[in-house]
């Protein structure tokens, strides 16, 4: 058995698991929510025992150190020497990395060079990799890429309406993100529907602080909402989602900014739910604020509308869907948003069972007369990562 530590560092949360492989037995797991926000939430689960504490604001690096300490204090391991390998979720692999890899110093440098493709993620993930290389010296580390799942998108959905020579010369295309999650959701949906994945059309929605939507046609990814970088698609916690590109030079002139990077940073870190509401990037905060704050309500309404618009477009693009799948922090835990999205799709004949939805019922949520299944599937990126890392480790033997 190999004790594998999995690190899934996102834009607002950090999830982790300690897993015995290849048995896929989860020894301990946890999540640090509301990173870089007041009242960071730290959750740990060992067996059937769960703990939750609210602490002062933690950044990602402090969260990693806390995870390592908790591994020992909660009984996951007696010493960190028992951790035999580490697997990391990395958002952007570009065209350099089309599958999972074992990390080396030169490959870490290459990841750092891809930061433009995921400015909120890749630099953070490199920091996590380097920190764990220090804390767990000599332990092999592996990277599993979100973008790998979308390498096979058909060209008509993968590229942009720019000069084709630019597309090829500069490798400009829709790389997509959350691919680990979308792939897991598609496979799990097929299992639950008891049908071969190759026969299914699905729309998977990973809705959290980072949000993306993917159309799956005949079992294969056909289109996805994130593009060259994760700032595109639907508006997110702090990311703008799709905007007119001429906004960048327009704002540079109006705000006296000298470089486009400053504007891009604002589109990544100060926009989305936070920018529109002026309250928070966390949907839970907006629910509370919306009772008296019209901007908070507007931000929520915009989010729902953009999801509806994309899902409706994908539904026609792939010729209808067998199932719509909700996942992610919002998708799994916010029945109000789920209800609002499905209500917005009512013209397609898709309906939700209100009681099942309000109970956060994992599995099937559709009403009896719904044209498509509506599913809530808690994503398990860590399990998908563990399987990829195990395959690499087996190949090394």
Automatic annotation (TrEMBL):
Q: Which residues bind Mg(2+)?
A: 8, 381
For the site labelled Transition state stabilizer, the residues are 178, 239
Q: Name the domain of life this protein comes from.
A: Bacteria
Binding locations of substrate: 89
Record-linked CDD domains: ASKHA_NBD_AcK_PK (cd24010)
- Catalytic activity annotated for this protein? acetate + ATP = acetyl phosphate + ADP
Membrane spanning residue stretches: none
Give any Gene Ontology cellular component.
Answer: cytoplasm
Q: Name one Pfam family in it.
A: Acetate_kinase
Q: Which family does it belong to?
A: Belongs to the acetokinase family.
Query: Assembly and interactions?
Result: Homodimer.
Q: Which NCBIfam families does the UniProt record give?
A: ackA
Name the record gives this protein: Acetate kinase
Organism lineage reads as: Bacteria, Bacillati, Bacillota, Bacilli, Lactobacillales
């Amino acid at each position: 058995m190999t004790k594998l530590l999995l690190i899934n560092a996102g834009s607002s949360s950090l999830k982790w698991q300690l897993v015995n492989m290849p048995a896929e037995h989860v020894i301990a797991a946890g999540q640090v929510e509301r990173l870089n926000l007041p009242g960071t939430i730290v959750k740990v689960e060992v067996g059937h025992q769960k703990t939750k504490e609210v602490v002062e604001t933690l950044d990602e690096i402090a969260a990693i150190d806390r995870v390592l300490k908790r591994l020992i204090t909660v009984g996951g391991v007696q010493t960190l020497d028992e951790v035999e390998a580490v697997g990391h979720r990395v958002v952007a692999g570009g065209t350099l990395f089309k599958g999972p890899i074992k990390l080396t110093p030169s490959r870490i440098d290459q990841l750092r060079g891809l930061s433009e493709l995921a400015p909120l993620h890749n630099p953070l993930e490199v920091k996590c990799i380097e920190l764990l290389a220090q804390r767990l010296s000599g332990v092999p580390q592996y990277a599993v890429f979100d973008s790998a799942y979308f390498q096979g998108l058909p060209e008509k959905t993968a590229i942009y309406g720019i000069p084709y020579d630019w597309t090829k010369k500069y490798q400009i295309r829709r790389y997509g993100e959350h691919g680990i999650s979308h792939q897991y959701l598609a496979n799990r949906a097929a299992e639950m529907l008891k049908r071969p994945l190759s026969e299914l059309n699905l729309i998977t929605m990973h809705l959290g602080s980072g949000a993306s939507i993917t159309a799956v046609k005949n079992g294969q990814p056909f289109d996805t909402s994130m593009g060259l970088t994760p700032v595109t698609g639907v508006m997110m916690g702090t990311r703008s989602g799709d905007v007119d590109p001429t906004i960048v030079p327009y704002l540079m002139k109006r705000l006296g900014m000298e470089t486009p990077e400053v504007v891009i940073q604002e589109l990544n870190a100060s926009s989305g739910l936070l920018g529109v509401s002026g309250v928070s990037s966390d949907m839970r905060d907006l629910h509370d604020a919306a009772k008296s704050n019209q901007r908070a309500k507007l931000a929520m309404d915009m989010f729902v509308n953009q999801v509806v618009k994309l899902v409706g477009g994908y539904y026609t693009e792939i010729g209808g869907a067998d199932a719509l799948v909700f996942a992610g922090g919002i998708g799994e835990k916010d029945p109000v948003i789920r209800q609002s999205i499905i209500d917005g799709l009512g013209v397609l004949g898709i309906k939700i069972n209100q009681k099942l939805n309000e109970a956060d019922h994992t599995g099937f949520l559709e009403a009896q007369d719904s044209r498509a299944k509506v599913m809530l599937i808690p994503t398990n990126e860590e399990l998908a990562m563990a399987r990829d890392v195990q395959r690499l480790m087996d190949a090394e033997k």
